Amino acid sequence: AIFWLVSANYSAFTKCQAGKQQLTRQSWGWIQEWILKKTDTDEKVDAMLAFMAIHALCKIKEFREELAPGFSKHSHDRALLHILDTNAEVVPTYLRLSEKYQKLIRDSLSVEFEFSQFLQAENVAANLLVVKDKLGGHEDSLGFFCFRIFVQMCGKRGDKGLNGSFFMTEPEFQRFKPGLDALEQLRTQEAGAAYNSFIRLQGSRALA
Question: What's this model's pTM, rounded to 2 decimal places?
Fold first, then answer.
């Protein structure tokens, strides 16, 4: 998904989508403008590719139990963070990155935030406060965190095939974007204000 996004390959990204499900050109244009801000250097793209290569390592039971005993499969992000803090040499893809991008990965892993629950309004303002406190509202850290969420969502249902994003269709993007906007607002707004704006928008959409 990262390759299609950064190379602006709309046809490849939407190849598996059809009809009203297909991501529109208008939405793709918004995504491209947003992506350009997150991937303005080759190093950022490289770091995200590295992150996506390692982010699910601790879903592998044997790897997790040997290097992060005591962590369950549901805490695979925390387990990976533990390994990167204590045995980083076993993850050379991470170790080759500069300290700046190693820190961005560790910061992202340290945030306990379920984006899918947030979209369903199952989270509260305090959950956004955790994100703001951990990432500080800075462009690099918050931007990297948001980019990670978006890329992972684009890759969902990847087991169905490699001919495009099976998940990030137009309906899913329209559902996803308000949550992403709320996270982006943490740069300039307090968590409570960003959360309230998100809830009001979701309420108005539900009544429309």
Answer: 0.86
Question: How many CA atoms lie within 13 Å of 31's alpha carbon, on the beta-carbon side?
Answer: 27
Q: What is the number of alpha carbons within 13 Å of residue 102 lying toward its C-beta?
A: 14
Instruction: At 122, give phi and psi (nearest 5°).
Output: -95, -5
Long-range CB pairs of 174-177, under 8 A, 24+ apart, other chains included: 174/27, 175/119, 176/119, 176/150, 177/30
**Left, alpha or beta for 156 (phi > 0: left; psi -120 to 50: alpha)?**
beta
Q: CA angle 56-62-68, nearest 5°? A: 75
Confidence of residue 201 (pLDDT cuts 50, 70, 90): confident
Rounded to an integer, what distance in angstroms lies between the CA atom of residue 5 and that of residue 17? 16
Closest CA to 53 of 1, 110, 117, 113: 1
Across the chain, the runs of DSSP E, i.e. the strands, are none
Which residues touch 83 (CB under 8 Å, ≥6 apart)? 57, 58, 67, 68, 90, 91
Query: In angstroms, rounded to a whole number, what is the distance separating the alpha carbons of residues 63 and 77?
Result: 13
